[in-house]
Amino acid sequence: MRLLYTSDLQKERMIESIDSLILFLPASSLSSTINSVTKSTALPSPGRRRAIFTLLLLITIPIGLAARFLPLALPWFLYKYLGSTLWAVALYWFLAAILPKLRPIAVATIAMIIATLLELSRLVPIAPIDAFRLTLPGQILLGRYFSLKNIAAYIFAIALTATLDHSFIADRRKNSAG
To answer: Environment class of residue 71 by beta-carbon count within 10 Å: exposed (0-12), middle (13-18) or buried (19+)?
Structure first.
């Protein structure tokens, strides 16, 4: 295994934190902890991740717009929540594309916070933002009405997307190691 450090101080801090971790771990969990730490260091290059996530974003956006605006004769549940779900998926892909060095759990956390704050912002009347919400781009980006069900749809979609992202990275790591 090859680790890159930007300085000797960073290497020393890493060794100290591993040493302190070893003191508090039972022997049986030590090897699994070390394996999980070393396995999580191999992400595809940031440029490759950025390209993949940008492509996924560009695929997700028209599907979301079609689900929202075309008469697709979808069942009520899909008609109601597919647009919100795909909006959250697009948010995840966007954040993953602009922050390609972050792990899926970090991107998911940021996406969930942003989605929840945007939904909660609908409860606070701010004239310029409310005026923007009345436009088509405002309806697409910010929505019009507050709904706890939308927050649940966002969290579900982001968690599912992060899981797919993580699975893809794990599969690539196994395939490149073998």
So the answer is: exposed
pLDDT score for 110: 98
Instruction: Write down how long the chain is.
Output: 178
Ordered DSSP codes for 120-161: HHTTS--HHHHHHHTSHHHHHHT-SS--HHHHHHHHHHHHHH
Indicate the domain borders of the chain.
1-41, 44-177
Dist CA 115 CA 166 (whole Å) = 20
Percentage of the residues of the chain whose pLDDT score is greater than 90: 63
Give how far Cα 138 sits from Cα of 44, 105, 132, 154, Å. 35, 28, 5, 18
Q: Could you give the residue ranges of the DSSP H alpha helices within the chain?
A: 8-24, 27-39, 46-69, 76-98, 104-121, 127-133, 136-141, 148-177
In this prediction, residue 31 has a pLDDT band, given cuts at 50, 70 and 90, of very low
- The token duo for 83 is 């647009």
Measured at the alpha carbon of residue 49, what is the angle toward residues 57 and 38, in degrees to the nearest 5? 135
